[in-house]
Design brief:
Number of strands of chain C: 7
CATH superfamily of the domain at 90-155 and 269-399 in chain C: MetI-like
Largest interface: A-B, 65 and 69 residues
Chains: A mainly alpha (500), B alpha/beta (339), C mainly alpha (404)
Distance between the termini of chain C: 44 Å
CATH class of the domain at 90-155 and 269-399 in chain C: Mainly Alpha
Number of helices of chain A: 24
Strand order of the largest sheet of chain C: 1-2-7
Number of strands of chain A: 3
Largest sheet of chain C: 3 strands, antiparallel
Distance between the termini of chain A: 65 Å
Helix content of chain C: 55-70%
Radius of gyration of chain A: 31 Å
Oligomer: heterotrimer
CATH architecture of the domain at 90-155 and 269-399 in chain C: Orthogonal Bundle
Structural class of chain A: mainly alpha
Shape of chain C: extended
Shape of chain A: globular
Chain lengths: 500, 339, 404
């Protein structure tokens, strides 16, 4: 049988052949190119145009960038090096190399004492020890020379990590503090740290006595717990009143309004004086005028968004309220703030805010800007949160009502947690917008990164340098905003799948 | 009272500067630093180095005042002010003194409620053009494009000058000196106009300074000086007489090199003795101690030293003394007697 | 049936103000309005006290005093001897010009980029993606500065246009692109030019009638007219005929190099171009995202359904996709217009004389009237914003889906 078979059928394949690759034109890069780049004549033209644009951009930017000169003391030196190398154009990145710390932190003072003890102890001993240089009665001119020499010897990287540990630590803790807000998986208890962080950041950045932030936090906490304790005993109204009264007495001097001056209120400064005398703890105080650079943008942007959250929520609820006055005043506030450009508000903060305050009070400019930016952001946040409130199914409101919850309980336990959650991408986007807008503070004389480019250009060495500085500042902002916006996209996608 | 009600906590935080009391001097002493309103950056006059230390001609006057009042020339906080915000900031008490190339004019002195306490630099508005244009007088600039810093007196002077001479021009307003320089160098304007000191400082940083000329016309008087708030006369005295001290010290030959020696014992010149506190109690009349002048001179030097160090002919800015020479040398610097 | 007894009449008690839902909202509103009043009184009071302490008053008289400064871009004539009020008006017009032109250009670029970003062409869509991300994630101010610097550095100086210079005018010597701006020809209206314009306007109106007629005809008979070609003909031919018949009454004044600058023609200044371009490019990235989102929001079934009905792709776009997508696109588009208008206040960075630079800048600086000046400035922007957003509300209520 097998023989006949062998005769009739010349060959039977015992094994499957491995699949042959598709024809050359139907696979691999060629197919990909055909489908994605030249599927028809119009696409082909587009591809050619795009290729030309890319080539044109790269050919005009890349040589300049890559031939950049990284080590020079001044623009003139850069030009000499460039001519010596026979290059037609070359970026002078040396300015970034020399000044990047300034672009990041402005004139925020470095912790020279720490740097000297850690890395410069021999020279410090030679100069007469810590107290001889950094002590109270030391010669300030000698100190400045010593610090300048030390910075030159140590190099920018060491100065970055150890000289600026305060803002860096504040930034690192910021990441920890926003994590529970942005990632729902973390334990809710971490939100408490987010609250505490406000005071920690203030202490790290501005310094001064440690007791001020501690007492302020304690005052808030005490008013809150007092209100709860009293309301458990004798009703919500009395509890609220007790809380408010304690708060006023602790932070303000309400009796002063009626002319009584007991000298006892506000309580806070007295407590602080006692504690400062008993346990003097703290960091060196740094005035707001020294803040600058990218750090300033982060501080203004972050505090603007964080501080405006409560006001933004209140305004959003107010705008949804059916109480006429509340509703209309919320709408007026939101529309007035949103209708006028931020730069006008900033000029208002810088030129006019002092007129609106009680006679004799002045804030420093940074604080005024933060107040203004907070008001500004709150109007935008209110609209974002209103969107979140509107997006909740009506059933949620009805369910809360049918459970017999009153307005505040319904909001706190049912509506707001959900509404805020779906508003987070919007809030992040508002933050990105606000963060980019912080560059406008240059017009009122704050030293943001762009303002520092002006200051750097004003020195004889770097006069006449533009592109390198603009590109550096632009890149810093781009990197920060790009990752934020990617994150907000990711959140949006995550939230969408949740709801489907 | 109200203030404590609302801003008690803020003031305690040190963020609100608290009351602008009548006594700026007391504020400064309590704070331990002098808040000096300064330029955001103008080569030779005020600019920060890589370590954030400010240097310059105006900066030296700030340091001199700090040395007089606080005994420490480094105890100065420099608050950068734009030309738009400077006077408001001073009036609101954000700075103790404004030393930012501000022109002493009638309306600023009266209407804006400010006090100019002397002149630390006599300037005038001039024009800079490229040599290749072949222009030798500002009156030949008919139809030219002129770069000008907005928010300054130069804007008004410029309009007046061209209107009076009945020639046309096209203004290109720029926000900062750096921007004006960029526009001018790129040829976006034919003429750059600002104070002559600023023109010289700007020209000094060009790749080829020789290709540019400053035209002979000086179209305005620009006496630049320190400004304080109206009404605080004690503080005004200190600012004014610190400036006078620098000028007088140059006239009398007191320098940072010889001040210690001169102050050690009374010299033959009674005015030097009075200034340096070896004779009389001049310092006490202003509420300072008698060594204040010694501290100032040893910290920053006399006017001539400050000038030569920051903007003099040996520096890149390369300004000649000109009007800013001592009156004995044909200039306008004339300090009232210390008596 | 027993008569219902009347409900017990409750005497009004004070605690009802707090605990009775009927009265509570009233209580809250009264308290809120008192607090708001107090705040306002406090603000006004403080302002008055502070101004008095500085020896200032509130007066708008400064608006009628001589401005003393010059403005380069003037839509209405202005000299340094005019009043501050007129300077403010010049500034307002400049703001509006850059805002309107910016909105137009931003829409064109934005739609183009948004559509190209959806292109199947991998390279193009990536390139557009990079463009959008770069624009959206870098502050506008930096873009304005960069565009301005490019305009200044990359274009030739007017003197380069002289004999032997490296630059030359384009379009038959009628347009000069220099680093002081672009000089374009200015039309000179001769005798009879009014007639040409009238003919042109009439033919434009005629086009509308033609289209209406074509549509009626199509609905009645099913025949289609070549509307596009007829419209184009109507657009150009009558006006051109009139133009030549009347002996070319409209001439062109070409820019010419004379003295320091070009003379003649219209100068479109660099500060304007830089601001305009930067605003448009920046806003276009946001518009592109709106457009993309709008088109993606229309489900694929709509396209398939319309193909199934036999509509060609461009008719599908025109009749099915766009009308639905526009509903999604236009509200955020208008709020982008609003942003662009507000962002035009960054003109200060390039020295464009908008209302913030004239009224809110030089005028305040020269007169020391910051309170009054900022107030007027704020009111101007507020009114502009309200007008734009009322357009949006109008549109929204017109196209709102009638919910079932």
């Amino acid at each position: 049988m097998s023989e006949t078979h062998a005769q009739t059928v010349g060959f039977v394949r015992g094994q499957m052949l491995p699949p042959a690759p598709p024809p050359v034109g139907q696979s691999g890069p060629i197919r990909w190119i055909r489908e994605n780049l030249v599927s028809n004549w119009f696409n082909a033209i587009l591809t050619v145009v795009s290729l030309f644009v890319i080539w044109w951009l790269l050919s005009s930017i890349l040589p300049w960038t890559l031939n950049g000169i990284w080590n020079a003391g001044s623009l003139a030196e850069c030009r000499e090096i460039r001519d010596a190398r026979g290059l037609e154009s070359a970026a002078c990145w040396a300015v970034i190399n020399e000044r990047w710390l300034q672009m990041l932190f402005g004139f925020y003072p470095i912790d020279a004492r720490l740097l000297a003890t850690l890395f410069y102890s021999e020279q410090l001993a030679a100069a007469g020890g810590v107290e001889a240089i950094f002590g109270a009665g030391a010669d300030s001119t000698a100190r400045i020379e010593f610090v300048a020499q030390m910075r030159a010897d140590l190099g920018n990287t060491i100065v970055f990590f150890f000289g600026y540990w305060r803002p860096l630590l504040a930034l690192a803790l910021l990441v920890v503090a926003v994590a529970p807000v942005l990632y729902g998986n973390l334990p809710r208890k971490m939100l408490w740290f987010s609250l505490v962080y406000l005071f920690v950041a203030f202490f790290l950045l501005w310094g001064g006595s440690v007791w001020l932030p501690i007492l302020t936090a304690a005052g808030f906490a005490a008013s809150f717990f007092l209100a709860r304790a009293v309301s458990a005993l004798s009703g919500a109204l009395l509890g609220l009143l007790a809380g408010i009264l304690f708060f006023l007495l602790f932070f303000f001097d309400p009796l002063g309004l009626v002319g009584l001056d007991l000298g006892l209120f506000p309580v806070l400064p007295h407590l602080r004086a006692v504690l400062d005398a008993a346990v003097p703890l703290g960091l060196s105080f740094i005035p707001s005028d020294d803040f600058g650079g990218f750090m300033l943008a982060i501080i203004i942007g972050t505090s603007g968004i964080v501080l405006s959250l409560p006001l933004g929520i209140a305004l959003a609820l107010g705008r949804q309220s059916d109480m006429f006055i509340i509703n209309k005043s919320s709408i007026i506030f939101i529309e007035v703030i949103r209708g006028v450009p931020l730069i006008v508000w900033l000029f208002t903060a810088s030129l006019l805010l002092n007129y609106f305050l009680p006679p004799g009070t002045t804030f420093d400019l940074l604080l005024r800007v933060i107040i203004m930016v907070t008001l500004f952001a709150s109007a935008y946040l209110a609209e974002v949160i209103r969107g979140g409130l509107a997006a909740l199914p009506k059933g949620q409101y009805e369910a809360a009502d049918s459970l017999g919850l009153d307005y505040w309980k319904a909001m706190r336990l049912i509506i707001l947690p959900q509404a805020l959650k779906i508003s987070i991408p919007g809030i992040v986007n508002t933050f990105i917008g606000l963060f980019k807008d912080t560059t406008l503070v240059v017009f009122i004389g704050l030293r943001d990164p762009l303002g520092l480019t002006n200051a750097i250009r004003a020195t004889g060495e770097w006069n006449g340098i533009y592109w390198e500085l603009y590109i550096f500042v632009g890149l810093l902002f781009f990197i920060f905003c790009f990752f934020m916006s990617r994150y907000s996209l990711y959140l949006e996608r995550k939230l969408q799948t949740d709801r489907r | 009272m109200k203030k404590t009600l609302i801003f008690g906590a803020m003031a305690a935080a040190g963020l609100a500067a608290g009351a602008v009391s009548a006594g700026t001097m007391d504020d400064v002493k309590a704070r331990g630093t002098l808040k000096c309103g300064s330029n955001e950056g103008l080569a030779g006059f005020a600019a920060p180095d890589a370590n954030g230390v400010w240097n310059g001609f105006d900066v030296s006057l700030c340091r001199a005042i700090a040395a007089a009042v606080l005994g420490d020339p480094q105890a100065v906080e420099f608050v950068p002010l734009t030309s738009q915000t400077r006077f408001t900031a001073l009036a609101a008490g954000e700075v103790d003194v404004l030393i930012r190339n501000s022109t002493w004019t009638y309306s600023r002195d009266t209407d804006l409620k400010l006090d100019f306490k002397g002149v630390n630099y006599y300037d005038g508005q001039g024009f800079m053009v490229q040599k290749s244009l072949g222009v030798s007088s500002a009156k030949e600039l008919d139809g030219a494009t002129v770069c000008i810093q907005t928010g300054t007196t130069t804007e008004l002077n410029l309009a007046d000058f061209f209107r009076v001479n009945n020639i046309s021009y096209e203004p290109v307003p720029v926000a900062t000196n750096a921007e004006g320089q960029q526009q001018y160098l790129a040829g976006a304007c034919d003429v750059y106009t600002t104070d002559i000191s600023g023109l010289a400082a700007t020209r000094a940083t060009f790749e080829n300074p020789g290709d540019h000329v400053i035209l002979p016309e000086v179209v305005s008087k620009e006496p630049l000086g320190p400004v304080v708030r109206h009404g605080d006369n004690e503080w005004g005295d200190i600012v004014g007489w610190t400036l006078n001290l620098l000028i007088a010290a140059e006239e009398l030959g007191i320098t940072s090199a010889n001040v210690a020696e001169l102050a050690a014992a009374p010299t033959a010149n009674p005015e030097v003795n009075r200034i340096l506190g070896t004779e009389g109690e001049l310092g006490a009349m202003m509420g300072l101690d008698k060594d204040w002048a010694v501290r100032v001179i040893s910290a920053v030097g006399n006017y001539g030293e400050v000038f030569e160090r920051n903007i003099g002919e040996a520096t890149p800015v390369g300004l000649a003394r000109g009007l800013n020479a001592q009156w004995t040398n044909g200039g306008l610097l004339y300090a009232p007697p210390f008596r | 049936m027993a008569a219902m007894s009347a409900p017990p009449r409750e005497a009004f008690r004070l605690s009802q103000l707090l605990y009775d839902a009927r009265y509570r909202s009233l209580t809250i509103q009264v308290i809120a309005s008192i607090l708001i009043m107090l705040l306002l009184v406090e603000l006004v009071n403080n302002t008055v006290t502070n101004l008095a302490a500085l020896g200032k008053d509130i007066s708008f008289g400064f608006l009628w005093t001589t401005a003393g400064y010059d403005i380069n871009q003037q839509i209405i004539p202005f000299t340094s001897q005019d009043t501050h009020a007129r300077a403010a008006l010049v500034g307002i017009l400049n703001t509006l010009v850059v805002a309107v032109l910016g909105c137009i250009l931003a829409t064109i670029i934005g739609v183009l980029v948004g559509v190209l970003r959806l292109s199947k062409n991998w390279l193009v869509s990536r390139l557009m993606g990079v463009y959008v991300e770069a624009m959206r994630n870098t502050p506008l101010l930096i873009w304005i500065l960069i565009v301005f610097a490019v305009m200044t550095e990359a274009t030739p100086q007017p003197r380069e246009f002289r004999e032997g210079g490296s630059a030359s005018m384009i379009l038959w010597d009628s347009v000069a692109i220099s680093n002081r701006g672009v000089y374009i020809p200015r039309p000179v209206w001769g005798e009879g030019s009014g007639l040409v314009v009238a003919v042109f306007l009439l033919s434009v109106i005629g086009i509308f009638f033609l289209r209406a007629y074509a549509r009626r005809r199509q609905e009645a008979t099913g025949d289609q007219l070549p509307v596009l070609w007829m419209s184009l003909g109507l657009f150009f031919l009558p006006a051109l005929l009139a133009f030549f018949a009347l002996g070319r009454p409209i001439g062109l004044e070409l820019p010419e190099l004379g003295g320091f600058n070009f003379t003649g023609g219209i100068q479109v200044r660099n500060s304007f171009i830089a601001l305009w371009l930067a605003l448009s490019l920046y806003t276009s990235a946001f518009i592109a995202e709106n457009v993309r989102g709008g088109i993606l929001a229309i489900s694929k079934g709509q396209t398939e359904a319309s193909f199934a009905l036999g509509l060609r792709p461009n008719r599908t776009m025109q009749l099915v996709i766009l009308p639905q997508a526009l509903r999604v696109i236009i509200p955020p588009l208008i709020s982008q217009y609003l942003n662009l208008t507000k962002n035009s206040s960054l003109a200060i960075a390039v020295g464009y004389m908008d209302v913030r630079s004239t009224l809110g800048g030089i005028t305040i600086n020269q007169t020391g009237r910051e309170l009054e000046g900022m107030l007027l400035l704020g009111i101007f922007y507020l009114i502009t914003s309200l007008i734009i957003s009322s357009f949006m509300n109008l549109y929204n209520s017109n196209v709102k889906l009638k919910e079932r």
